[in-house]
Amino acid sequence: MLNARITRVDRGAYDVLTDDGPLRVLALPRGEVATVGDRVALDDDRTRAVALLPRTSLLSRGVASGHSAAQPLAANVDAVLLCFGLHVPVPAPRLEQLLVLAWDSGAEPVVVLTKADLCDDLAAVRAQVARSAPGVVVAAVSAATGDLSELAAYDTPGTTLVLLGASGAGKSTLVNALAGTEAMATGEVRATDGEGRHTTSHRELVVLPSGAVVIDTPGLREVAVRAGEDAVARAFPDVDALVVQCRFSDCGHGTEPGCAVLTAVHDGALPAARLASWQQLQREVAFQARRTDARLRAEERAKWKRVSRAHRARGGRP
Ligand SMILES: Nc1nc2c(ncn2[C@@H]2O[C@H](COP(=O)(O)OP(=O)(O)OP(=O)(O)O)[C@@H](O)[C@H]2O)c(=O)[nH]1
Ligand SMILES: [Mg+2]
Ligand SMILES: [Zn+2]
Question: Which domain holds residue 27?
Fold first, then answer.
């Protein structure tokens, strides 16, 4: 059986890469959700995907409304590159939110500051970003000057990267600079606010000359964070270390005496905005978990209804 890696997902079909080159095949049967970067087994005539192979990591997000399921964005990735264009200030809350998603995927998060050629105080931006991303590699690059050296450690054979960030951050331009060809279309940003025009509309996996692969994604609009509590803790190791020092183990970090978190804010060691971000993400993760629980309970009820109907149909008692 031939194994293949999905480079693009369309309605009912995948573009895949195999050892024998690219193919277009029919998607897995309904119910199995594969995404870009997934590995699948093909049938003997290589016309359809028949099995989803186990994943090493999965980047996904919650969907904002109407749905409680997660949307898988990229599978089997080694590093999640969170891209911020330096044509606008780096929004700390968005960075903190994306870090939670990235940590939850099982891959390594990396902050990529793109358009470094537009920034005249890179050291200051790095310092600001480091406070929002403790322990995370921060790489500054410029596709305009061609300086991608700070990403060299990730552009290695067998490595899978995924780019995440706002429209106009320069993700597709970075893919092209890494690839050395115009693999992806790019678009101008609005002069008024630096927003992109959502040029990329599909997720797509591109093979780089080094043997690394990179997954380009459409610019993120709204993001719902669906992640484990441990992902929040990994994104906020500084807050996590304070929480255990609070006098009360169930401290709400509001008005309690002996709260180490509030003391750190008061002393200027922890920015109030970062605490607010952490509290917001804690709430969001808990909310999404409750929605998932509610959905699982509903599915469970529906299943037992089917089972007992089938049981009655066979003449058994309800
Ligand atoms: N000065 C400068 N401009 C850049 C650089 N990289 C990208 N840009 C510009 O930023 C704009 C947006 O680039 P894209 O690569 O299309 O951005 P994107 O993140 O793919 O946007 P979406 O596909 O809409 O999500 C384009 O006008 C690029 O020329 C850079 O290193 N320096
Ligand atoms: Mg793009
Ligand atoms: Zn506290």
Answer: 3-52
Query: CA–CA separation, 232 vs 39, rounded Å?
Result: 28
CA distance 116 to 146: 10
CATH of the domain at 29: 2.40.50
Given a cut of 80, is residue 32 above it in pLDDT?
yes
**Ligand 1: residue whose CA is nearest its atom 5:** 115
- Asked if residue 186 has its Cβ within 6 Å of ligand 1, the reply is yes
Q: What is the CATH number of the domain that holds 72?
A: 3.40.50.300
**Overall domain count for the chain:** 2
- Evaluate: CB of 115 within 6 angstroms of ligand 1: yes
Quick one: which atom of ligand 1 is closest to the CA of 196?
24
- Beta carbon of 143 within 6 Å of any ligand 1 atom: yes
Residue 276 lies in a domain: no
91 lies in the same domain as 181: yes
Higher pLDDT, 284 or 316: 284
39 and 142, same domain (yes or no): no
Where does a domain end: 21, 36, 52?
A: 52
HSE on the CB side for 70, CA within 13 Å? Answer: 21
Q: Which of 65, 202, 86, 283 is nearest to 95 (CA)?
A: 86
Give the Å distance between the CA of 190 and the centre of ligand 1: 11
Provide the whole-model pTM.
0.91
Mutate to test the pocket of ligand 1, among 88, 186, 198, 206 (most ligand atoms within 8 A of CB): 186
Average pLDDT value for the chain: 92
What pLDDT is recorded for position 205? Answer: 98
Helix 272-313 and helix 92-105, axial crossing angle in degrees, nearest 10: 40
Q: Which ligand is nearest to the CA of 266?
A: 3
